[in-house]
Amino acid sequence: MTSSWSLFKAFSWPRFMRMNLLLGLELLAVVVTSLWTAIKGNFTTATLFYNLCAWAMLPLLVGFVMLAVNNEKTVRATTYRLLPISDWKFYTLNLTASLVNMIYLWLMQAILFALTLTLGWSTLTTGFNMSAMFFNQFSLSSGFWQAIAGAFLVIILAMVLVWSTISLIHFATNATAGFLPRFRQQFVNVIITIVVIYIAFRVASALIGMVSYLSSQLVNQGNVSSVWTSILVMLAVILVEGVINTLVLQKWVEPTLN
Amino acid sequence: MTALTIKDLRYKHNQHLILHDVQLELAPGKIIGLLGENGAGKTTLMRLITGSAKGKGTIEVNGATTAVTRKQQVSFTDHLNGFNSGIKLQQIVKFYQSVYPDFNSDRYQELSTFLNLDGQQKLAALSKGTREKLIIALTLSRQVALYLLDEPFSGIDSMSRKKIINSIIKWTPDNATLLISDHYVTEIAPILDEIVVVKDQTVSVHKGADEIRDQQGMELEDYYESLYAGGDTHD
What we know:
By secondary structure, chain A is mainly alpha-helical. Helix content of chain A is about 85%, strand content about 0%. Chain A has nine helices and no strands. In chain A, helix 3 packs antiparallel against helix 5 (about 85-120), helix 3 (about 55-75) packs parallel to helix 7 (about 140-175) and helix 5 (about 85-120) crosses helix 9. Chain B is α/β, with parallel strands linked by helices. In chain B, strands 5-6-7-3-8-9 form a six-stranded mixed beta sheet, with helices on both faces. In chain B, strands 2-1-4 form a three-stranded antiparallel beta sheet, with helices on one face. In chain B, helix 4 (about 105-115) runs antiparallel to helix 5.
């Protein structure tokens, strides 16, 4: 049997390389825009920080989409589907590898922010005094940290939820090949896609509501326990989708020929 | 124990019946030619054996019946569609070493030397023939009970093809079974112990090569062509 750790490493390595490529491109963009700022004569020690702020979202978004594509390609590749490992392990390791790489990308962004922040600290001090005044209103109580932790968890779970929902659409539309003629497949696949996207939108609106609630709790220093309940609900949805995906994968989803 | 037992296998795709009532038993240690027209279902049959295609019926490989356990016993010519085109051959080999505990690195080294494969080359830079050679080397480097080679010689020049065919027995572990689908019946005929013909959406013929030669007095290619006599032309 293929060991879970070996497969995790095999799944992670190419994704890790791609995340590093994105980071490299981001750094290049920051350097080029900073040089441009310097040519214009506006360079300060905070320029790198400002430019990083401007570019940071792009690799995160592209990375997220790339990993989603990677997840689906992996499932349809004969190379991976021939491996002697159970379908639930295969599915879980595929998602986990993407999640770990996404977290790595976030972590590297945080490190880059910390570095550029340190470099531009003196210039930014005035602005930070204002920020400090803003944050000091809330005092760094346990509620504050709970809200921060909750927000991170919501982001992580939201990413996994989007990926598993994409897989659900992909697997369900792929599975119809086993039951329906090609014309009807297209018709049914359109319906499946619409239904799942509708459900995904409903979940997304619930998530937005959750984030808004979290923000209000952060400002008002209120109780955030209901956020944790919502997080558990998200986790449950991911698990249910995971069970459905694994079953469909096992019974009907076939890898592509070439 | 048989190397492969298939009972009542049926497979449909897009509501089209591809294979039905497939019954097949292969003994260990044999080299078997899987023959049939284009689109007859040879590749599908191999994919069903590996568990990649989902059909109805029973498939047992060296005692393993579930898809996961069968995958442990079967080495199939993977078309390497899971890799980026920029990947180097040595990285692919490293991948195989890490995910297949039965991968025999020494045998791969011997095969890669024999087939003139360069580990530094990138997958995208390979010609069709060299890519097929790599696939053959990777497939045969695993230590399993059943090897499935799906048209392994397409794109390989005739000189190399003959060289590989003549030495394929050397690369197959003792007691392992080799199922080869190929269009070049004449070229693979000398090494075949048996032939299996997929025709009319099922396994229509399963015979020993000697049985055909001795009892019917025909060469394998002639016998195979006689099965289609009067029909359309085919490979």
